[in-house]
């Protein structure tokens, strides 16, 4: 998660640390970890987060909003996801793939062909994937909510203005009061319409808090998603709940889940987060031959470079050793040639 | 573009500016603009870039690389694109859509159905799109190179370590010497294989410099893309060249371009960048009903939140006015109730 403001603030301390920027790392990482834990359903932060030095934060707040917003630096991830045509195109592309897939699977079902669930069955592994049986259960598509179905513009605009750490309590207040300040992700409303026309139930499985179910349902309705019913088409997280598998297995009791849609790997199976693999290992799990075929064919992923489980990794975890490059302009200068010595007879050695 | 290190360095100056962070904006924006101009083919920066305050940059450099890299903060965009399973999944998903599309179009051609070009014809507009005629020209798919076909790990790792501004001359040295330090984008090599097996020519159209054609061809070969021939299957930018349309029209003289693949809107048509529309306008252009159907169906977009034309926008450009949210905890405190006055007869008003 790019939280530029605390990084700026911390540099006052960072410059005191000779030749390194380590002071800035824990806060940004801590904020990202806290946000991710929360969104994974871990509503209790079990590890204290490092705090920025006292007085270091520049709080812009809502005072004199106009002047302040003119000077707010928007983190690049937000420029990308909320501002760019590129992210709109990526989202439309993902949702077009979903549209085509839903229509094809609904058509299979209507002519009596078997359709398969894309929920990994209990006990399955990524090396040996097994999917839940569908039988004649009604078809469903399961969406995550945040940055999958809706863009949390109001919350993130506030976050961009205020900087500082991610605040779980503020997020809960956002769930309760932010209703009209979201926008649908490009392409999602057409996908929901196509699903419903094809007889595919639209279900939401989110780590938003169960206590805010009514507000979340109202938010979805206001954003154009129609009615949802908690426990049927809206599934939320209990306090301290880790992961979404329990809920997707519960959904699979009632429905044949032919597609899952999310912005983070945990929106597809908890197995991606189960054993806290190293960064490269997790990337390999998502690309492995037993599951890679699912991307765009049952598992549909929307971009989110702003927060979440994707934003992990130290330098050595993100950049492989064998891909290190040295700018030739930084190479050591050529050694000064040794002076030529002459012998007493004048010849050169 | 998230260039966290210069932001950190600049805070020393930023904290002197009461209540705002404006000092940090120009450098990050300037670096992003410079990078984008370069990648658009504008090899001459025609506008001087703001420089960080003297002495403010903490240069980690390649000295004592091991200790330095342990403390290098990786920008979240790089964590996302290079490290995460999410980005791998998004890339695999985009390339799966391409695979399916290429096979379908090649099949159409093989049974005598007409196939259409996805290159907008000269004079077409996004409101009135018209595509080049294909006739019987051999089929081709056109790929951008950077962060579409290859991940520039070596260059970006160096950039993460050194911080500072994007340096165009350094990029040119990277083109010349970085050959083995890239990795193919997840999914691309399978797509190239599928294209070739389906008889679809694989062509690269990149804003890398024409002077470095041999090095770029060698880099592609070493990364598994096979042989390319400059002027046939490899198209590069002349100095000062803006945009890619001239080249894609030249490619279309020889080939029926049935698919284009890129990470920025300019990889599809220069029209997205032609009139420097405002951020929201450009996003609307990409989502407009006359072109939105192309995403995933002829135009295939790979994620890139690290640099490029997607990383634009001030606060007010990225966040619409009507999506502003005030945290209830920030609301003005309730006014203190007026004291109750009593009349001389003791009753309460």
Automatic annotation (TrEMBL), chains A, B:
<dbReference type="InterPro" id="IPR036412">
    <property type="entry name" value="HAD-like_sf"/>
</dbReference>
<protein>
    <submittedName>
        <fullName>5'-nucleotidase (Lipoprotein e(P4) family)</fullName>
    </submittedName>
</protein>
<feature type="signal peptide">
    <location>
        <begin position="1"/>
        <end position="23"/>
    </location>
</feature>
<dbReference type="Pfam" id="PF03767">
    <property type="entry name" value="Acid_phosphat_B"/>
</dbReference>
<dbReference type="GO" id="GO:0009279">
    <property type="term" value="C:cell outer membrane"/>
</dbReference>
<keyword id="KW-0449">Lipoprotein</keyword>
<dbReference type="InterPro" id="IPR023214">
    <property type="entry name" value="HAD_sf"/>
</dbReference>
<dbReference type="InterPro" id="IPR006423">
    <property type="entry name" value="Lipo_e_P4"/>
</dbReference>
<dbReference type="InterPro" id="IPR005519">
    <property type="entry name" value="Acid_phosphat_B-like"/>
</dbReference>
<keyword id="KW-0732">Signal</keyword>
<feature type="region of interest" description="Disordered">
    <location>
        <begin position="322"/>
        <end position="349"/>
    </location>
</feature>
<feature type="compositionally biased region" description="Low complexity">
    <location>
        <begin position="326"/>
        <end position="349"/>
    </location>
</feature>
